[in-house]
Specification:
about 450 residues, alpha/beta, TIM Barrel, eight-stranded parallel β-barrel, 15 helices, about 15% strand, binds beta-D-fucopyranose
């Protein structure tokens, strides 16, 4: 049972204006394994690329590591109880591949699987729909040693890992996301160096993107064989609406280029079975190879059931030197603690972009913001900025639904304050505050507000 208003903390009397969402709209929150679990060597877990990356000096702010993060691996019952208190309809979390297959492939580490079995069972007992992300960036280090996502074999290994989870958890998990944000994996992890594995080889760009897409397609095929149509599967893309910084044709072209390289490089193969010409041309001129084999594009375009969209920012693009063609310039709006411009229309624009390619159901699988939250003298965390942020972005989601988008759900990033990758433990994205000395959890004002949104299936407009 999903808890109603009575069991929800601090529900105010019905507000005058309520922006109602469609009946059955799924209200969720999201996390990922490496960002919250800790216990990175417990119960036979293997090393991941993020464990290795965090140990390299200067990679992560404050030398943060995945240990102990939010200690969710041990405190998960408390976290599920908090989710139930908020009345969450769904919880999106990721499975750590190195807990299942510590060396990338069989044999199975049963204790690792058992952790997720228990979590899924507890969620279901509380009426919270589990949504599993199969890959949220924590590749087994063993596979990276063999080339990681630049190697075709990693896509085949991923399909094997995915199939194991479909077999073991397929009956209990209605929503499955294959890969989270292939764009950031490609550009920040392989072409660039800011995220694990931090390779820094632009010539790997297309190989990595292609193998991630191939991994997705192979997993969708395995899903159909093992689970069929009784559950749903899709990829999660982070879409960034791209705007020209001025009306000058060179800036307009720069925006088109960034839009193509970041958004359409993934949308077009998934939904049209081909790469955008502009991207192929761009990479060809830079001697970036595309290692596609015959039949790959059909695998990549294997029909999925939904598209997950993570949305945080828009991009303002200006022309730059001929080598790069485009650069990003800062937007004029107010900023979050990440320095990201607050631009709520990014939600409706990202949904419109997705609808250019697909009529599939859509989920906003991540949206949220970091602010400098700290407990007041009474211990309360009054994060009004986050409430304003969530409200403004939900208004845009509602606008998109009114315009015809088949949007089925919304997941706040994040349930808990957690390890924010190369930025360490500085940025706090959670609805729930985590004290990093004691690991104690405390609901922020935004959590109470979100509980009210869920209970009313609508957004109070005051
Ligand atoms: C997204 C990631 C997620 C989190 C948010 C802030 O790109 O998917 O893990 O770091 O950004």
């Amino acid at each position: 049972m999903i808890s109603g208003p009575q069991s929800t903390p601090g529900v105010a009397p019905a507000p005058a204006a309520l922006l109602r969402f469609p009946p059955g709209f799924l209200w969720g929150a999201a996390t990922s394994a490496f960002q919250i679990e800790g216990s990175t060597s417990a119960d036979g877990r293997g090393e991941s690329i993020w464990d290795r990356f965090c140990r390299q000096p200067g990679r992560v702010a404050g030398d943060g590591t995945g240990e102990p993060a939010c200690d969710h691996y041990r405190r998960w019952p408390e976290d599920v109880a908090l989710m139930a208190r908020l009345g969450l309809g769904a919880y999106r979390f990721s499975v750590a591949w190195p807990r299942i297959f510590p060396t990338g492939g069989p044999p199975l580490n049963q204790k690792g699987l058992d952790f997720y079995r228990r979590l899924v069972a507890a969620l279901r007992e509380h009426g919270i729909m589990p949504m599993i992300t199969l890959y949220h960036w924590d590749l087994p280090q063993v596979l990276q040693d063999q080339g990681g996502w630049a190697a075709r074999d990693t896509a085949l290994r991923f399909a094997e890992y995915a199939a194991l989870l479909f077999e073991r958890l397929g009956d209990e998990v209605p929503l499955w996301a294959t890969i989270n944000e292939p764009m950031l994996i490609t550009y920040a992890g392989y072409a660039g160096r800011t995220k694990a594995p931090g390779v820094g080889r632009p010539r790997q760009t297309l190989a990595v993107a292609h193998h991630l897409l191939l991994a997705h397609g192979l997993a969708v095929r395995a899903f159909r064989q093992i689970i069929g149509r009784s559950a749903s599967i899709g990829m999660v893309l982070n879409l960034r609406p791209c705007h020209p910084a001025s009306r000058r044709p060179r800036d307009v072209r720069a925006a088109q280029l960034l839009d193509t390289l970041t958004n359409r490089l993934f949308l077009e193969p998934l939904f049209r079975g081909r790469y955008p010409d502009l991207a192929l041309h761009f990479f060809h001129r830079r001697f970036v190879p595309l290692p596609a084999a015959p039949g790959d594009m059909a695998i990549i375009a294997e029909p999925a059931d939904f598209l997950g969209i993570n949305v945080y920012v828009r991009v303002l693009a200006a022309a730059s030197n001929p080598l790069m063609g485009a650069r990003q310039v800062p937007g004029p709006g107010p900023k979050t603690a990440m320095g990201w411009e607050i631009y709520p229309a990014c939600v409706s624009e990202a949904l419109a972009l997705a609808r250019e390619y697909t009529a599939l159901p859509l989920y906003l699988t991540e949206n949220g913001a970091a602010f400098a939250d700290h407990p007041g003298p009474d211990g309360a965390i009054d994060d009004q900025e986050r409430i304003a942020y969530l409200r403004a972005h939900l208004v845009e989601a509602h606008r998109a639904i009114a315009a015809g988008a088949d949007l089925r759900g919304y997941f706040v990033w994040s349930l808990l304050d957690n390890f924010e990758w190369e930025d360490g433990y500085g940025p706090r994205f959670g609805l729930i505050y985590v004290d990093y000395t004691t690991r104690a959890r405390r609901l922020k004002a935004s959590a109470q507000w979100y509980a009210e949104v869920i209970a009313r299936n609508g957004v109070p407009m005051e």
